[in-house]
Design a protein that fits this description.
With 193 residues, the chain is mainly beta. Strands 5-4-3-2-1-12-11-10-9-8-7-6 form a twelve-stranded antiparallel beta sheet. The longest helix has 7 residues. It is globular. 4% of the residues lie in helices and 53% in strands.
Length: 193
């Protein structure tokens, strides 16, 4: 997969239902909570990632538009506390025209998973985290059919810089995907922004 890649571009390998595709980094938007990377596929799908977390996905069967994260923790602070850390996520969801879906997200350190779609990296060389989400207080309860499976992230640290190199995310209970920086970043490499 890495043989014909343009060395002047940055890539993200996404896998959905066992099929992989490459996305290319289109641009990076400045943001007070950290830069937002905007990735494009040849099929016009767009992923927006901020510090490794999904803040937008369009062009897919399920879409998250206008995602706002309120004080998401840094990965190293989660490791330091050792326990669960919470933040609020608000997102607009399509199809279904669901606007302002407000969730309390819980993130915690996790054991290295026995199953993942990570390629060319030793999973045990990375720090792993899991996120779960429930309806925020005062919001309508999320029905059983709307609860998202756990999201999972793999983080590498070089000096003081942390980079999320792999993620597993579901946009709906029925639509999940994985993504990985490509070619695979070794734990001693810093991801460029």
């Amino acid at each position: 997969m890495a043989g014909n890649l343009n060395p002047n571009l940055q890539y993200l390998r996404a896998t959905v239902r066992g099929k992989s595709a490459l996305l290319v980094l289109g641009y990076v938007e400045p943001h007070p909570l950290g830069p937002i990377q905007v990735w494009y596929s040849a099929e016009r799908e767009v992923l927006r990632l901020q510090n490794g977390r999904l803040v937008g996905a369009v062009g897919m069967i399920s879409e998250w538009r206008n995602v706002v994260l309120t004080r998401p923790p840094e990965w190293s602070s989660i490791t330091r506390t050792g326990g669960p850390v919470h933040f609020v996520r608000v997102r607009d969801v399509m199809p279904g025209y669901r606007y302002g879906v407000k969730e309390l997200v819980t993130v915690r350190p996790a054991a290295t998973p026995s199953r993942n779609a990570l390629l060319e990296l030793d999973p045990s060389s990375l720090s792993w985290f899991e996120e779960s989400a429930v309806a925020a207080t005062g919001m309508p309860a999320i029905s059983k059919g709307e609860v998202l499976p756990l999201a999972r992230y793999a983080v590498t640290k070089v000096g003081n810089d942390e980079s999320v190199v792999y993620g597993e995310q579901c946009l709906s209970p029925e639509f999940c995907f994985t993504w990985q920086r490509w070619p695979a970043l070794r734990p001693d490499q810093k991801a460029s922004r």
